[in-house]
Amino acid sequence: MSSTPVEVTRTGQHTFRATNPRGAQVAIGREDAPEAFTPGELLLAAIAACSAVTSENLLVRRLGEDAELTVHADRTKVPEDKHKFARVQVGFDVDLSAIEDDDRAKLLEAVERAITKYCTVSRSVEEGTPIDLTLPR
Predict the structure, then answer these.
(1) What PANTHER family does the record tag this protein with (predicted)?
(2) Cβ distance 69 to 52 under 8 Å?
(3) Do 25 and 65 fall within a single domain?
(4) Considering the entire predicted model, what is its pTM?
(5) Which bin fits 121, alpha (ψ -120 to 50), beta or left (φ > 0)?
(6) Both 64 and 78 in a single domain?
(7) Beta strand pairing status for 15-19 and 25-29?
(8) What's the pLDDT tens digit per position in 12-61?
(9) Is residue 22 domain-shared with residue 76, that is, in the same domain?
(10) How many domains is the chain partitioned into structurally?
(11) From CA 125, how far away is CA 120, in angstroms rounded?
């Protein structure tokens, strides 16, 4: 299978827990499940997190170790199919005011190039990675 497997186990009616081999856990459920992410929210979180992780070194190198960085992700759904995203919007909240205009433009270009080239999640979603489903027989 994968070199970074994730397991999702049912914990109750419409609630699940995702775990990885490093011991991390996240609660998953439907929209009304308290303290849980929906699967769609997890996809948005993965896209935002991948963008943040991919760009962190570039931004921190210019802004300092204490730089605050928040990445937001939201989606637009396909009007005729509520179970499909039409588009995902990703936005950065980071204070770049201490950087000169020319240097800021170069930094933003580098961040965009890095995300486009190295963000596994965004690239996989954009390019439409096939999913192989295995069910018991």
Answers:
(1) PROTEIN YHFA
(2) yes
(3) no
(4) 0.91
(5) alpha
(6) yes
(7) antiparallel
(8) 999 999 999 999 999 999 999 999 999 999 999 999 999 999 999 999 99
(9) no
(10) 2
(11) 9
